[in-house]
Write a structure and sequence with these properties.
heterodimer; A: 260 residues; alpha/beta; nine-stranded mixed sheet; 7 helices; 13 strands; globular; B: alpha/beta; seven-stranded parallel sheet; 28% strand; binds flavin-adenine dinucleotide; binds adenosine monophosphate
Amino acid sequence: MNVVVAIKKVVDTSEAADVVEVDAAGKDISKAGLVSRLNDWDGYALEEGLRWREKLGGTATALTVGPRDWDDVLRTALAMGADAAVRVDEDAASMDCRSVARILATAIGKLPHDLVLFGAQSEDFGSAQLGPMVAQMLGLPHATLVVGLDVNDDRVHVSREIEGGARELYTLTLPALLTIQTGLNRPRYVSFSRIKRAREKEIGVTTLHELGLSSADLVPSVTLERLELTPAGRRAMLISGNPEEAAGALATLLKESGVI
Amino acid sequence: MGDILVVAEHRGGQLAAVSLEMLSKGRELANHCGGQVAAVVIGKDADRYARRLAQHADTVVVVDHHGLEDSPAEPSQRVLSSIVSERKPKLVLMGHTSFAMDLAPALAVELGAALATDCLDVSARDGVFRVTTAPYNGKVRAVYAFAPSDIIIVTGRAGSFPVEQAQGQGDIEVLEYDVEQDGQRKVFEGYVEPEASDVDIAQAKVVVSVGRGIKDSDKLELAEELASALGGVVACSRPIVDYGWLPAGRQVGQSGKTVTPKLYVALGISGAFQHVVGLTGAKMIVAVNKDPHAPIFGVADYGIVGDLFEVVPALTQKVRELKA
Ligand SMILES: Cc1cc2nc3c(=O)[nH]c(=O)nc-3n(C[C@H](O)[C@H](O)[C@H](O)COP(=O)(O)OP(=O)(O)OC[C@H]3O[C@@H](n4cnc5c(N)ncnc54)[C@H](O)[C@@H]3O)c2cc1C
Ligand SMILES: Nc1ncnc2c1ncn2[C@@H]1O[C@H](COP(=O)(O)O)[C@@H](O)[C@H]1O
């Protein structure tokens, strides 16, 4: 079974809110001083794709649309066990989702694919659009927010998460595209030495031209006008002091308000 | 400016609150810019929602189909693409729900429509539609403008658009569609309700909740001790369940539980939108986070900016002393 997993690189802002700033162009945050890594959701998608490829044979290809410094997430994928890695050399960050989807659909169309996996959404602009867009472009059945899957001959049974922890069950005929929600597996640990060894593996770099696309195929329908820091809608009364003092003051407040 | 179509969603006999929010927004935009507002509701017995929707909409289109109890996205896409192609609304609005996440991007491609998802605001000025989103987990706000010619699809974040009082009485149309499942390439097999949990966090009076800031499953003890001092239970954000450190029944948020305690204590939780939607019923929220800009401080009543590994043991100690 041939698996393709679409992955991307994001900056990790989870613990860095106080250093997040809008960059000079006003169209993204300033990345200086922030660590970049594989999109969280894509790690789960890769793990799932690799497990099915290990079980059923075939190939697993990791695919990204990004600049050269995104090669390292492809290397992570290779170190995890992907057979091939392909990068379409374009700055996806400056495109609208439909254009990135068009590129991915074209690239996937040229790769052997029975099971196509995407992350449910990206951590940066988090649009959750690309998977189902690409499925529609390729004419594949799809399911999003998948938290469980089982491949059986030419079918895949999936469980997708809906609100409140409930699930919907579907059966899709392969080839199919799924977007993966966090938590459906435990992504394998890759040691630094494996990543280093993966440096010797080749990354297939391709261009829009080689894919037969031109800028006329990539007309944006939405344009980012501006970005600003979220206004500090501070509601909380912050309790100051060292941990002891702050904890003491908070405990007293809880007592006074009758919750303890 | 053109007409507005709002896709209403329902499950288990209930209309989604976000659908009324989007409908109110649609009404407001139409009042400003002209055009008609239509609501579409799809599914078995969908007509039972028609009256409620007609209070806000000029027309309610009921697509009563018997194949499915509720409205999974896949057959709905075919119904909606035919309705949109026929009626040519300028703007299609729906809630940013698991249903819309499956449906809206595919529908946009099928219709050649422009799409923006998870929006906190939608506006129309001088013929240009704009939306606001919250990238990087809410740390920034982004404003997008749509190209003028396209049909536009917008999914809106729950709780972002107030539901207005409305006493209108729009027309109700019932349509019959033949919604065979898509050549059997995607077959709906049913729903699974969440498993019963060991501890019912939804009913607890005090909830001590841990997030990724706890770093290590061994450290959950800190939260358990505080919870026991406060007479409460331990809950968590999603990553803690994803890592297998606590069972799914302990998760608070959009894909977990909604809690209604007297006191909710958030330890090392950033306050992502999908988490805090589960807190709307909490009377008092207290947060401990080392990041003074963490969005959780935007919803909490009291906050301590600090290292939870120092603050929590001290707090447990003080609570015990005050209770003794
Ligand atoms: C469809 C969908 C559904 C989702 N449903 C849910 C849901 O139901 N519930 C949910 O919770 N999430 C849900 N999420 C995920 C959500 O978007 C966030 O990713 C998640 O809530 C983040 O969890 P967190 O706050 O624990 O982690 P992070 O965002 O990583 O935050 C960790 C926080 O800990 C702080 N911290 C770190 N170290 C310390 C320390 N020593 N002391 C004090 N503070 C510290 C950091 O400053 C940071 O603010 C969903 C996402 C999607 C796409
Ligand atoms: N530039 C890209 N290259 C390859 N895959 C991508 C890219 N951007 C997004 N994706 C995939 O699409 C998923 C959803 O992204 P998004 O629609 O941006 O939230 C991600 O989890 C990835 O699997």
